[in-house]
């Protein structure tokens, strides 16, 4: 192992011999042990010794082993091992005044560093050999830095050779100059960059180390040719804002021109608002001549060309859609009823000679008391043959009826029975087909029906209002690129029911559907349906008597009703081409 010599921290040219320890002794500290070759050459630099791989050394020393210098002055670099020499590990100690000086190293022949690649590229290209030449080190630009110099938190890919750094309260500007020597980059440090650095990094790529130090001190960089300029991020942001403001002012500094465009399909007043928000510059303006539907634009020539292209895209005919709706209403009614009425009239009187022979009761009468009377029809029936209804279970509005009247010779007792029956069935079908045509994204409405007057009296004032009872179709179609139609539909079918009117005002039977559907061109779909089924069975009877076997049906009335209603709404859109 060759003895070590102290290294002066003052600026010394690269090819100048190192000074004697007695001339400028410096205080040094013990660095960790690193593997070193047989011959170690130490040169005093302002901050650090330039590694050979950073400047591209082609010439070797007279020693058989390749000469690999070590970085000193508050930092340590582990040099690449030489395949032909396997030196034992040893501790590198700086500042020993008793160590003899090494002979002067062989002259170093350097290559010129090629221009830097564009630092604004997302990821620098990988190098064939990262530690072989200074060209590879110079091409390794710190990853993760964007076009404005700000650090982007993406997945960086570092390609620099490995270095080991140990700085404690070191000047930031001096540390950045160290990276200039390590990488071979031409570096300009902004005068506002200041601060100190405390890092301890071992075997990390030099560009990653530089990226970490820049981010820790809120610094960025920009590249001008082959020169890297390191400045605070705030300075880069201000410069970017100034460049943007200057570009905007230059863009708005042109001469204004006037363009007129007569529209065929679009409304000029609507398109003027759209152009003002999207295309026109702050100096531009848009006016409208509603009489001729002409758009008048005043702006820079570039903006007018963009506006012309947008107008050509928007001013085109809209396709039309025909929407046909079919409302199908079906009803089914069935009713059956059967009933009986019993009338009875009997009396005891001296006139008939059938008194009881008692003082009380001597005479009397019995008859039905349901506030109804019945008896043989026509003028042939006498007053005594009319009987009061005792069991009134007849069918109302019966279509079939039969009666039997029985009486005594003297008319003392009369009996009348009437059987009535009804059976009814009916089927109904109502088809309503409203149809309307409209343009794309334009609402259309069609209505057919009547208005019902409703009279109200308040404070001796008569007010008449009208209520619509009509069939209404309201739809807004939207044609898609897939040749389908999206429709917002409101369909209402309201009809008056005069059979249940109150004070001359009928109730309104209403069916309504409000929905949004997507249907293929020419296809039919069901947008809604209602099915109502009502079954009713009613039995009226006379207590006790309806339980008589075989004859019980003579004392009860049965009413059976079955009603069903069904509503289906179909919709069919057709694109008119």
Structure overview:
By secondary structure, the protein is mainly beta. The chain is built from 7 helices and 21 strands. Strands 9, 10, 11, 12, 13, 14, 15, 20 and 21 form a 9-stranded antiparallel sheet that branches. The two termini are 95 Å apart. 24% of the residues are buried.
Mean pLDDT: 74
**Class inferred from helices and paired strands:** mainly beta
Rg, nearest Å: 55 Å
Main sheet characteristics: 9 strands, antiparallel
What's the overall geometry?
Answer: elongated
Termini separation comes to: 95 Å
Helix count, DSSP H or I runs of 4 or more residues: 7
Q: SSE string, helix = H, strand = E?
A: HHEHEEHEEHEHEEHEEEEEEEEEEEEE
Strand content: 35-45%
Short description:
The protein is mainly beta. The protein is built from 7 helices and 21 strands.
Record keyword descriptors for this entry:
nine-stranded antiparallel sheet; 21 strands; four-stranded antiparallel sheet; 577 residues; disordered N terminus; mainly beta; elongated
What is the secondary structure topology, with strand pairs?
Elements lengths: L51 H4 L78 H6 L22 E10 H12 L2 E4 L6 E10 H11 L2 E6 L2 E6 H19 L5 E6 L5 H11 L6 E5 L4 E6 L1 H14 L5 E29 L15 E4 L5 E2 L12 E7 L6 E8 L5 E20 L2 E5 L4 E15 L2 E19 L4 E13 L11 E13 L4 E17 L14 E21 L1
């Amino acid at each position: 192992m060759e003895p070590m010599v102290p290294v002066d921290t003052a600026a010394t040219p690269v090819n100048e011999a190192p000074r004697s320890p007695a001339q400028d002794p410096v205080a040094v500290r013990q660095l960790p042990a690193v593997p070193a070759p047989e011959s170690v050459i130490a040169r005093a630099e302002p901050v650090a010794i330039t590694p050979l791989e950073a400047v591209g050394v082609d010439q070797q020393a007279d020693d058989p082993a390749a000469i690999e210098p070590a970085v000193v002055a508050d930092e340590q670099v582990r040099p690449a091992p030489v395949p032909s020499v396997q030196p034992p590990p040893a501790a590198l100690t700086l500042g020993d005044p008793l160590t003899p000086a090494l002979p002067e190293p062989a002259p170093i022949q350097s290559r010129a560093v090629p221009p830097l690649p564009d630092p604004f590229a997302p990821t620098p290209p990988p190098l064939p050999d990262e530690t072989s030449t200074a060209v590879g080190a110079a091409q390794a630009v710190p990853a993760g830095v964007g076009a404005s110099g700000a650090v982007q938190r993406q997945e960086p890919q570092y390609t620099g050779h490995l270095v080991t750094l140990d700085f404690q309260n070191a000047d930031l500007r001096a540390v950045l100059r160290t990276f200039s020597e390590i990488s071979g980059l031409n570096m300009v440090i902004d005068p506002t960059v200041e601060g100190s650095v405390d890092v301890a990094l071992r075997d990390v790529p030099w560009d990653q180390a530089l990226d970490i130090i820049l981010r820790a001190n809120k610094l960025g960089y920009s590249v001008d040719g082959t020169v890297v300029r390191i400045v605070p991020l705030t300075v880069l942001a201000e410069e970017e804002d100034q460049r943007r403001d200057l570009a905007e002012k230059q863009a708005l500094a042109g001469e204004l021109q006037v363009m007129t465009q007569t529209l065929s399909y679009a409304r000029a007043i609507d398109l003027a608002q759209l152009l003002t928000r999207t295309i026109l510059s702050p100096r531009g303006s848009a006016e409208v001549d509603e009489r001729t539907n002409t758009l008048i634009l005043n702006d820079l020539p570039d903006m007018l060309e963009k506006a012309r292209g947008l107008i050509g895209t928007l001013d085109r005919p809209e396709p039309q859609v025909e929407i046909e709706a079919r409302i199908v209403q079906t009803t089914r009614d069935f009713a059956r009823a059967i009933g009986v009425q019993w009338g009875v009239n009997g009396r005891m009187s001296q006139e008939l000679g059938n008194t009881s022979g008692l003082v009380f009761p001597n005479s009397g009468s019995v008859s039905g008391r349901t506030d109804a009377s019945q008896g043989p029809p026509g003028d042939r029936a006498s007053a005594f043959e009319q009987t009061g209804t005792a069991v009134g279970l007849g069918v109302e509005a019966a279509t079939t009826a039969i009666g039997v009247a029985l009486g005594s010779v003297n008319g003392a007792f009369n009996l009348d029975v009437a059987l009535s029956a009804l059976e009814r069935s009916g089927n109904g079908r109502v088809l309503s087909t409203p149809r309307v045509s409209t343009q794309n994204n334009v609402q259309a409405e069609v209505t057919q029906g009547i208005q019902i007057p409703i009279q109200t009296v308040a404070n001796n004032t008569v007010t008449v209002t009208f209520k619509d009872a009509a069939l209404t179709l309201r739809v807004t179609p939207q044609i898609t690129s897939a040749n389908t139609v999206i429709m917002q539909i409101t369909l209402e079918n309201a009809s008056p029911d005069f059979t249940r009117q109150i004070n001359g005002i009928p109730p309104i039977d209403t069916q309504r559907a409000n929905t949004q559907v997507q249907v293929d061109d020419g296809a039919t779909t069901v947008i809604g349906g209602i099915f109502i089924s009502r079954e009713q069975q009613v039995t009226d009877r006379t207590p006790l008597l309806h339980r008589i076997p075989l004859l019980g049906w003579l004392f009860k009335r049965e009413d059976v009703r079955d009603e069903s209603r069904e509503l289906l709404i179909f919709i069919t859109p057709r694109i008119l081409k």
